[in-house]
Hints:
Blueprint: H1 16-19, H2 22-44, H3 50-57, H4 61-89, H5 92-109, H6 115-143, H7 146-160, H8 162-177, H9 181-201, H10 215-227, H11 230-260, H12 265-289, H13 295-319, H14 323-350, H15 357-382, H16 386-408
Amino acid sequence: MAETHTETPPDDDLTAGELLPPGRRLRIVLVLGFLTALGPLTIDMYLPALPAITGNFGVTAAAVQLTLTGTLVGLALGQLIIGPLSDAVGRRVPLIAGVAVHLIASVLCVVAPNLAVLGSLRVLQGLGAAAAAVVAMAVVRDLFTGFAAAKLLSRLMLVVGVAPILAPTIGGQTLQFTSWRGVFVVLAVAAAAILTATALVLPETLAPQNRRSGGIAGTVRDYGRLLGDRVYVGLILVAGLAMAALFAYVSGSSYVLQEGFGLSEQQFAYVFAGGAVGLIGATQLNVRLLRRWMPQQILAGSLVLGLAFGSVLLLLAATGVGGLVGILIPLWLVLAMVGLAMPNAPALALSRHGEAAGTAAALLGAVQFGVGALAAPLVGVLGVGAVAMAVVVFAGMLAATLVCFLVVRPHRLPAEHAAGPVVALAH
């Protein structure tokens, strides 16, 4: 991020603000935030309960972590299906159906008799959350592109950021009064509230004349065209590998902090929230940085710094220097750099394919959660200790940085990818 671009991007919400009353625009943005938060809620709320589930079913930690992997697999596969579907039939129908599936799966998780059933239901939860994730991203692309999309995604992540802060805390508090099954009762209530808000507030944003009707063959052609775009593929890989570092922390932190350092479920929730605060703060800092630097410059700088902090984390974890503080400080700094990368890589990727926003967002989300699904059990396979978590975090940041500079080549991206037009809402 050594050089700056000379033209400061506009500091308003672009012409979408002229097309919608402020109150309605705010409600739509909030609903989009809650929709995107459904996935993190599903993932994070039961983290304090992982050791309890391990003991309840009498299985290994790695086996219980596969329930997290199942959720991520559902999120990845669901987006590949729902994204193109939303391009063909519009955004609302797939979205509402998906959140309803999540609600039903959450209710069934409450009565799951064994780990196999729980894992299968977690896949269904992921499929339902996939609809919320991919359609919300596609709606953003229906309205904004480039700089405007990066700015809106940063604002949305402020709302989304409430999920990883509150989810483990809510999970920990729930465990004070009930078993791990009560966590899924809370998830079911949250899904019901999000479903209601979506049905009442979110309009259709994809006009009928902009819908794609090529069927399965058209979808295959769209995916083929997307996969033929080197820069787009590189950007979604960067997003996925950065997500892998995040999910290594998500899947391993409960064991590292509770079993390794002896924190209680509630203490873990507070420490986990500290990392989320850093990530959220970085997404909001991104809005200010966008006034001076282009998204590709911020992305490159955040990955380099994230790799440096990941190196420190691995060194301190391997030597034991600094104890808990020696783990948390570099870990939180890595999370902050992931928070800077998260809005910019998707915004740059989606700005290249506005004509198939749902499909492009689906492939982006599938790669993000697919790579995360691989990272989550890898921590368990390596031993669920601080070193295992640090190795996967470092590897994710290293791979993301290499792909960014060798494949994406951000310094060669034209300035046009920093800004773009806005498409009106479909009424």
